[in-house]
Amino acid sequence: MSAVAASNPLQRLLRYSRPHRAQVWQASLCSVLNTIFDLAPPYLIGIAVDVVVKRESSLIARVGVTSIIGQLAVLSLLTFLIWGLESLFQYAYDRLWRNLAQTLQHELRLDAYSHLQELELSFFEEQSTGTLLSIINDDINQLERFLDSGANDILQFFTTIVLVGGTFLALAPGVSWFAMLPIPFIVWGSIAFQKRLAPRYADVRQQASLINSRLANNLSGIATIKSFTAEDYERDRVAAESEAYRRSNRRAIALSAAFIPLIRILILVGFTATLFLGGIEVANGRLSVGTYGFMVFIIQRLLWPFTSLGKTMDQYQRAMASVNRVMNLLDTPIAIPTGDRSLPVHQVRGEVSLEHITFAYQGRSPALEDLSLHIPAGQTIGVVGATGSGKSTLVKLLLRFYEIQQGQILLDGIDIRELRLRDLRRCIGWVSQEVFLFHGTVADNIAYGSFDVMREEITRSAKLAEAHEFIIELPDGYDTIIGERGQKLSGGQRQRLAIARALLKDPPILILDEATSAVDNETEAAIQRSLEYITQDRTTIAIAHRLSTIRHADRIYVMDHGRVVEQGTHETLLNHDGIYAALWRLQSGVK
């Protein structure tokens, strides 16, 4: 674990909020001033008793106001002023803290999401979507709730202890020691509770992630759940996760709930000591009646905040557990850094070379081993092979979704690791076999990544992808909402929209990764008719199970267990009578 990751979560939060240091100080100052003026009324009560009892020898009389009416008038003006300032600073700290909470929440969520987007695909394979959603939603919201009120509560608590404790020591040092005797025990108990609560709330956040992960996974697979009539099974699994979350919270609650009752007992000791010993001091003439009244009243303001310390510590521990999870995400290193070499799209010719590539997914045997192939600019090549032969891995390496372990990939003679990732990916149009569409309109999905295009360009791309005909038959045509993941469309319709999206991007390199796997024969034939135009003046890599889709490619590579075992044109490979010829006979029905 890095030094940053191992440091105190509060220190990590303070480092992150450094750009807002001025607002933090302003909010803190307003919290302290509000507490000072909020504590003033008990002092005013003591002064009022002093005026009535001592009259011309009261505290106010010593500053020159000797008449009772004048003293009471001064006292009334002070009361109005103090209460007004207390209300003003309450408004100020409330507004400052809450705005700061919203700002940090916004920035932290945006930074966390932006960092997530920079991480490699292997990170997402090891983390569940629910866990990540829990961090960028629940944990950041937990921090926001703490900053809304918890930070102010802590500041006001310590301000109260310092001011009231100092006053006690100054006015009646003999009594004050007994009154404040419980405080060290309360502080020690608070620290002990904090240490025991921290791991329990860390476990609560972990259990929250697990149940979020379960729910997100089930909602995504609701059609599968229904088709296998697994509703009861999944409900039981959700119940088990929810029960684990409840048990985790119970362990935390069992400890935190015991805090306030214990504190109340200690407070009672301090209050009773003040009441009894202070009364003796007044009876013996060593303490004035006004001071005694003030002390009996103010002792509650000194000790009572300790009862809310449990709630504040509870909030604090929840927030710090969340801060740790968010900061750990932000500290996750980016395994695939961007290069610093620029390559404008209009300068890309599209020549691709893979030289002695070796790559293995984590914990698995190599998917590609010492593989080399060359794709001339502007040509169409086909890649075929059995499932697991490494075809789609080629695409992911070319897009730098993963980093190769050996060898190099060159684009126009430049190692792609030297290129800026944005430039590399802008020049590649990728149609995946697992089409992902966003909730929105048909037009929005086609224009995704090309956000400033005109409707005419969207329509043109849809026609090239043989999608226009079914689009205009939808209820609202190109403005039809297709639902999350395009669930209102068939698999073939989704795939045609994905092809249109890639064509609208107009990339110098087009990758069709099983792009016709979900379309019917008629649609496939239509797409094949447009391929001649689609692939014109661009490098095209077509990965296919259906050999008919790549039979006219300039060159076909046959892969087996991460290696190229055959290559050539369709006719050459048929004459070779190897793996490709066997696959062709199987698919075409020729014996």
Automatic annotation (TrEMBL):
Q: Does the UniProt entry include the keyword Signal?
A: no
> Mind telling me which GO cellular component terms the entry cites?
plasma membrane
Write out the transmembrane intervals. Answer: 59-85, 177-193, 252-277, 289-310
UniProt KW keywords? ATP-binding, Membrane, Nucleotide-binding, Transmembrane, Transmembrane helix, Transport
Where does the ABC transporter domain start and stop, copy by copy?
A: 352-586
* The keyword Transit peptide appears for this protein: no
Q: Where is the ABC transmembrane type-1 domain?
A: 25-318
**Location(s) in or outside the cell:** Cell membrane
Membrane topology, as annotated: Multi-pass membrane protein
Please state what the protein is called: ABC transporter ATP-binding protein
**Which organism is this entry from?**
Phormidesmis priestleyi ULC007
The major lineage groups are: Bacteria, Bacillati, Cyanobacteriota, Cyanophyceae, Leptolyngbyales
